[in-house]
Write a structure and sequence with these properties.
Layout: H1 2-10, H2 12-19, E1 30-36, E2 39-50, E3 61-70, H3 79-93, E4 99-108
Parallel strand pairs: 3-4
Antiparallel strand pairs: 1-2, 2-3
């Protein structure tokens, strides 16, 4: 019990920060979500690293996973994998050169 109390105390600032989240940092990023009923259970934030050339239908560059999260009770059930597969598919449809994780990506799928 003491360990759980210590973890809660140590993460208190993170929770306050998460609750004050603002959407301005998204810019032109694409947000993919998956729902169970009316509840959002997973999300991927997909950005784009532009390449040298591009057109209206096809882009040049890479898809960048900036954030990836799945609700705790839905982890290890394939939700996160399905979201990443959809992100890779979307990048391919736009003519991208692949998909990578941002060095500073936010992830909650462990």
């Amino acid at each position: 019990m003491a360990l759980l109390a210590a973890v809660q105390w140590l993460t208190r600032d993170y929770i306050a920060h998460a609750e004050s989240f603002k959407y301005e940092w998204l810019g032109d990023d694409t947000v993919l979500i998956t729902k169970f009923g009316d509840e959002v259970i997973g999300t991927v934030v997909l950005g784009w690293e532009k390449g040298e050339k591009g057109s209206r239908r096809k882009k040049s560059g890479k898809g960048i996973v900036r954030a990836w999260a799945v609700r705790l009770k839905y982890r290890h059930k394939g939700v996160g994998r399905a979201l990443l597969e959809e992100a890779v598919k979307l990048v391919g449809e736009k003519g991208g050169d692949g998909t990578e994780f941002a060095e500073d990506h936010a992830s909650e799928c462990a």
